[in-house]
Design goal:
Shape: globular
InterPro entries: MFS (IPR011701), MFS_dom (IPR020846), MFS_trans_sf (IPR036259)
Number of strands: 0
Structural class: mainly alpha
Number of helices: 15
Pfam family, one: MFS_1
CATH class of the largest domain: Mainly Alpha
Radius of gyration: 22 Å
CATH topology of the largest domain: Growth Hormone, Chain: A
Order of helices and strands: HHHHHHHHHHHHHHH
Number of domains: 2
Strand content: under 5%
Subcellular location: Cell membrane
Membrane topology: Multi-pass membrane protein
Keywords: Membrane, Transmembrane, Transmembrane helix
Largest sheet: none
C-alpha cells in the first residue's frame, strides 16, 4: 500500500470536543505502514455531515423535484425525465476523474481538495437555480448536467479526502457512517421539498442550502495544508496526459483492477434488481403499477432500514476484525440470496423478505468495498483523486447499461404480455455473487 500524507490538525477555530478529538487519541490502534495518524471524531463528524448535505442537495431532485418540473414543462412526457437524468450521468462520468486528477495536481494555499470543494459547491448552487427557473426541458437538462458536475464531483472529492487522511483501521467505520446517512438524506429532502410544492425555487434551494452549509463547515473547519511547497513531482499536463485520466493499467494495479471489476458486476446485478421493482411487484400481485405504488413505498422503507443496518454492521466489524474480503463476499452472498427469494416469491411476504435481505447485503458490500478500495488505491499521494474517479465508473457504467440489457432477459420464454422477472432476478443474484467472489479470491494485498 502506497504511503499516505500525515493528517494535519484541525483549525483552531473548531472549539470544544471536536477540536480535542481531531488529534491522535491515546490507546487507538496503530495503522498500517505509511498510514496517517488516526482521524479524530471532529473530522469524521464533519465528513459524514458533508456527505449527508451533498446527498440531500443532490438526490432530492432525482426523487421528486425534477419529476415535478418535467411535469410542469412537458405534461404527459415522463420519458423526458429519463433523458435528463441519463444526460446528467454522462457529464458526471466525464467530469469526475478529470476533477480528481486536477485536484491531485493543485498547488494552492488552501491545499489540493478545498479549492474544488468550494468551486463544486458554487456550481451546484447555480445549477439548482437553473433547475428551478428553467423555461424549457432543454434548459432543465442543462441544469441537471451542471448539478452533476458540481455536487457529483464533491462526492468523489470527499472520498479522496478519506484517502488522504484515514488510516486503514478507520476506513470501514467512516464508510459505514456515510452509508447510513446516504439513504436518510434524500428522504428528509423529499419531505422538505414536498411541503414546498408551490414554489419551485425553494424546492431546489432549501435542500441545496443544507448541502452548502455542510460542505462549507467541512471546508472551513477541516484544515488542509498549503500544497504549494510540496516536493511531489507533477508531470506536464499534455493532451495525452488528459486522455490517460480515464484509464489505468490493470497489470500495474491488479488489486485495484479486480476490485473495480467485482464492483462493476455487483452493480450490474443491483441495477437489474432495482430498476423494475414497481413492474415486478405489479406482475406478482396481478395489479397495475399505480395500484402497487403504496406497496413499493413500503418496500423502499424496509430497504432503507436494511441498508443502514448492513452498512453499520459490515463497516464496523470489518475494521474491528481487520478483514475486508470476507465481508465483501458475505454482502454479495446475502444480496444474491435476496434476489433469488424475490425471483421465486409468489406473494408479498417473500418479496418483502427478499428486499430486506438484498438491501442488507447491499449495505455490507457497499461500505466494506469502499474501505477496501481505499486500501488498494494506487498512487495514493499523487493520483488518489483520479483513481477514485475511475472507481466511480464501476457504479455509473452499469447503471447506464444494465437497464438497456435487462429487456433481453425479460423476454426469454415470456408469452403474451408477461415478462420473465424470475430469470432477471436470478441473473442479478448470480452477477452480484460473481462480483463478490472476484474480490474475495483475486484481491491479494488486503485480508
Amino acid at each position: 500500500m502506497a504511503p499516505a500524507p500525515a493528517q494535519p490538525p484541525m483549525d483552531e477555530s473548531f472549539a470544544g470536543s471536536l477540536q480535542d478529538a481531531a488529534g491522535e487519541r491515546a490507546g487507538t490502534p496503530p495503522g498500517g505502514p505509511g498510514d496517517p495518524p488516526p482521524a479524530g471524531a471532529g473530522y469524521i463528524r464533519l465528513l459524514v455531515f458533508a456527505v449527508f448535505g451533498v446527498y440531500m442537495a443532490f438526490v432530492t431532485p432525482i426523487a421528486i423535484s425534477l419529476a415535478i418540473r418535467v411535469d410542469d414543462l412537458a405534461p404527459g412526457h415522463e420519458e423526458y425525465l429519463g433523458y435528463i437524468t441519463g444526460a446528467g450521468g454522462v457529464s458526471a462520468v466525464l467530469a469526475t476523474p478529470l476533477v480528481g486528477m486536477l485536484s491531485d495536481r493543485t498547488r494552492s494555499r488552501l491545499g489540493r481538495r478545498r479549492p474544488f470543494l468550494i468551486s463544486g459547491t458554487l456550481v451546484g448552487v447555480v445549477a439548482l437555480v437553473v433547475l428551478a427557473q428553467a423555461p424549457t426541458v432543454l434548459v432543465l437538462g442543462m441544469g441537471w448536467a451542471l448539478a452533476q458536475l458540481g455536487w457529483g464531483t464533491i462526492v468523489a472529492l470527499l472520498i479522496a479526502s478519506q484517502a488522504d487522511r484515514l488510516p486503514e483501521f478507520q476506513r470501514g467505520k467512516v464508510a459505514a457512517l456515510s452509508g447510513v446517512v446516504q439513504p436518510i438524506a434524500p428522504i428528509i429532502g423529499v419531505l422538505v421539498a414536498g411541503g414546498l410544492t408551490g414554489n419551485p425555487l425553494l424546492q431546489f434551494l432549501v435542500p441545496g442550502m443544507v448541502g452548502v452549509v455542510a460542505v462549507g463547515l467541512f471546508v472551513c473547519l477541516v484544515h488542509e495544508p498549503d500544497s504549494r511547497g510540496t516536493t511531489l513531482a507533477v508531470e506536464p499536463l499534455t493532451p495525452r496526459r488528459l486522455a490517460s485520466t480515464y484509464v489505468f493499467d490493470p497489470r500495474r494495479n491488479p488489486d485495484f483492477a479486480w476490485n473495480w471489476l467485482g464492483k462493476f458486476l455487483f452493480m450490474f446485478g443491483l441495477t437489474f434488481n432495482t430498476t423494475f421493482t414497481a413492474f415486478f411487484v405489479a406482475a406478482r400481485m396481478d395489479r397495475s403499477v399505480d395500484e402497487v405504488s403504496g406497496l413499493v413505498a413500503v418496500l423502499g422503507g424496509a430497504g432503507v432500514v436494511a441498508t443502514m443496518l448492513g452498512a453499520l454492521g459490515g463497516g464496523l466489524l470489518s475494521d474491528r476484525l481487520r478483514r475486508r474480503r470476507v465481508f465483501v463476499l458475505a454482502g454479495a452472498c446475502v444480496f444474491a440470496a435476496g434476489a433469488v427469494v424475490m425471483a421465486l416469491a409468489p406473494g408479498m411476504p417473500l418479496i418483502v423478505a427478499g428486499v430486506f435481505l438484498g438491501n442488507a447485503g447491499l449495505g455490507v458490500f457497499a461500505s466494506v468495498d469502499q474501505a477496501l478500495m481505499l486500501d488498494v488505491l494506487p498512487d495514493r499521494e499523487t493520483a488518489a483523486g483520479r483513481f477514485i474517479g475511475i472507481y466511480a465508473f464501476s457504479t455509473s457504467v452499469p447503471q447506464a447499461i444494465a437497464p438497456l440489457v435487462a429487456p433481453l432477459f425479460l423476454t426469454v420464454g415470456a408469452t403474451g404480455g408477461e415478462k420473465n422477472y424470475t430469470l432477471l432476478y436470478v441473473i442479478a443474484g448470480a452477477l452480484s455473487l460473481l462480483g463478490g467472489l472476484l474480490i474475495a479470491l483475486r484481491v491479494r494485498s488486503v485480508r
